[in-house]
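Let's study today's protein:

:::
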Amino acid sequence: MAATIDPQVENYFSSIETTEEDIERSFPIQHEVETTQAFALGSLPVGEAAQMLTSRTAKATTPFSMDSRMRTLWSFINKTSVAIPSAQPLIIQLLSEIRKLGPLVVPKEGEGVGWGIDLEDGEAWEKLPHWANDWADSINMYEVEFLSSPNNQKARAEWVSATSYSAQLTATGDPELIGDWWCYVNCFFIRRCCPSIVRVLDIASSDDCERQVLEISAAAPLFIYASQELLQRSLASDTIESMSEKDIDGERLWWGDMRMLTIQRWKHWKDRWIALKDSDILDESNRNLASEALEAMAQAEASAG
């Protein structure tokens, strides 16, 4: 099914700054933009899109050029996923398809040799080198921009899109797509987005639920798409990543360890969603999100037995 582009982002592809094929800059080339647009609109098969989008990186003649082109590709793909939320399932399919491509041979001569470039033979494309780092940095950026200007419509929409993308990535269960790229980090992306849940369900705003109204659409997708993983993290008593003190300003509604995921907290979150779905402070759209989050939690519990 073709992705429906929101009117606010329909000019996204035409506004992207591009570079020439043989010029190394942190911008995609026009061919990559056109390929991604065709794929996002559903008019290009995922296998063809994967081959076409990785071809420029594969043609690189130096380690520096290959590394630069790959990083630029990941940045472009991740930015597109945020700009066009309806295309996120397709983009996740694309990343999975790229993982299936044959090994990328890194040039042994030219600019970048001896620079310590972290790109080894056989790592690409299977392990999507640098992609997870790019998305982790992007989550930080989108959250900071939202928290700096919570009433800014663009910043808010991008943060909502970022949490939704992270949750859908987590739902794949693919170790390369959920943020398991370090031996001591499990499911980083969903845990990194948990401060959004804290701000909606664990802290009461002093301004008539203003916090919940502003961010409920960012917190709800984490349950709607990734409740099963959130429940597993809660059962494992895992931690929330990158939660700052400002995340817990206001009246606390959860009195346990604010940085710990537990089954008791999971139950608290259910109670909070129940309260929000019936709240007359929220509009119908947000009440529906609360109901969807509750339904997803119930399904996760049923699956866990």
User: Anything to note?
Assistant: The longest helix spans residues 210-235. The radius of gyration is 20 Å. The beta strands are 203-204, 251-252.
